[in-house]
Design a protein that fits this description.
Blueprint (H helix, E strand, L loop, with lengths): L1 H29 L6 H26 L7 H18 L4 H19 L9 H20 L1 H4 L5 E2 L13 H24 L2 H11 L1 H6 L4 H27 L1 E2 L6 H14 L6 H19 L4 H15 L7 H12 L11 H5 L22 H5 L14
Length: 382
């Protein structure tokens, strides 16, 4: 009976956890038919930022490593796609695996410093990568177009779809983002994800348990860079234009801030962080055209004060606060069910306070015997 009850409770828990995902999927499919083209464009940008943050979440949230150069991998995927479309007249869909594979290899090579560096030192090295990449792109003018950037054709919807350009682009990005988020979820539930958690929590204990630190640290950078490259490819598809100034080090800091605000080590954190990255700067611009950065920083401070674990952990924090405020009533039964159902037994005699009866020995020899461990008796001769 207990096993059946536990199984039913587990099924109900899984259903409750799956309900938000189902509702979110239905809303995502119906969204482009109820919003204006610009709002559909904003939702498309949220989806591609969510792909980049999902990769950053693997590295920072579950791997425990700090990266301030994620925007550089994002730029690498965007520029590789733009160069293939502009210089080599490649199809849009063919650029996606190339951008993903190229950034994966780039992440493998860049993951080597992660083997010897950690903390602020690793953050400084990754930040340097994000700082020197835009000037490098400007100097490679024959390939990247220099400071002027590259303009490419956007993906056009097929005639059979009956969709507008913004709607078709939204569904394409939604399909790629769904596949990327599902891949990230499966990675975290696999042996790789368990190894990343072990390395994050305690490297020494993880190594004793047989986890290869060098392999999994490098793979964390590689997977993270691959997701960023995919997001950069989608960015080129959606915008149709790339330039070095679009991928400054501010982008890397913004992505990291969005992940922290959304929620580290959370499956819904990248989506919430992507919405924060997309909408909050525009809201800050509307509130204060003179100093939008000040408003943006104050909003981040406010969110961190209200939800220290990120927006993904805010519902649990609210429910916990409500539960602590509810009155608690505990009733102590007079008799246990076993005692209530048992027949009345004869009461045992109780001794008076301060008196402990000792049974009289039956054998005089035993009564005259010395207790164990007592000192030997001494008799004085009169």
């Amino acid at each position: 009976m207990n096993n059946v009850t536990a199984s039913l409770a587990a099924d109900r828990t899984r259903q409750l956890r799956a309900a938000p995902t189902v509702l979110l999927a239905v809303a995502a499919v119906a969204a482009p038919f109820y919003f204006a083209p610009f709002q559909v464009f904003q939702l498309t940008m949220v989806l591609l930022y969510a792909v980049a943050l999902a990769g950053l979440n693997l590295l920072v949230g579950f791997g425990g490593q700090i990266s301030l150069g994620h925007g550089a991998f994002f730029a690498a995927g965007a520029y590789s796609t733009a160069v293939m479309l502009d210089r080599y007249d490649t199809g849009h869909l063919a650029t996606l695996p190339v951008a993903a594979a190229g950034c994966f290899l780039l992440g493998l090579g860049f993951g080597v410093p992660a083997l010897r560096l950690r903390g602020l030192y690793l953050a400084l090295v990754t930040l340097s990568f994000a700082v020197f990449l835009p000037p490098l792109l400007k100097r490679l003018e024959p390939v990247t177009g220099g400071s002027m950037g590259l303009t490419v054709d956007k993906m056009q919807p097929p005639a059979w779809s009956g969709l507008a350009e913004d709607q078709w682009m939204y569904f394409v990005v939604l399909a790629v983002a769904s596949a990327a988020l599902l891949l990230a979820r499966n990675l975290l539930r696999s042996r790789v994800g368990r190894a990343l958690r072990a390395v994050r929590d305690n490297e020494g204990a993880a190594e004793v348990m047989g986890v290869r630190l060098s392999l999994h640290k490098t793979l964390a950078f590689a997977w993270s860079a691959m997701f960023a490259g995919v997001a950069g490819c989608l960015y080129t598809w959606v915008i149709g234009f790339v330039s070095p100034d679009s991928f400054s080090f501010v982008l890397s800091i913004t992505l990291l801030a969005g992940l922290v605000v959304g929620g580290l080590a959370s499956l819904y954190g990248p989506l919430l962080g992507a919405a924060f990255v997309m909408y909050v700067p525009s809201v800050s611009q509307d509130l204060s055209e003179a100093a939008p950065g000040v408003v943006f920083g104050l909003l981040i401070i406010t969110v961190m004060f209200v939800a220290p674990t990120g927006l993904a952990g805010l519902p649990g924090r609210v429910l916990g606060a409500v539960g602590r405020r509810l009155p608690r009533t505990t009733a102590i039964p007079d008799r246990t069910p076993e005692a209530a159902s048992a027949p009345d037994a004869e009461p045992r005699p109780t001794a008076a306070p301060g008196f402990s009866p000792t049974p009289a020995p039956a054998d005089p020899a035993v009564a005259d015997a010395e207790p164990v461990g007592a000192p030997p008796r001494t008799t004085e001769k009169e």
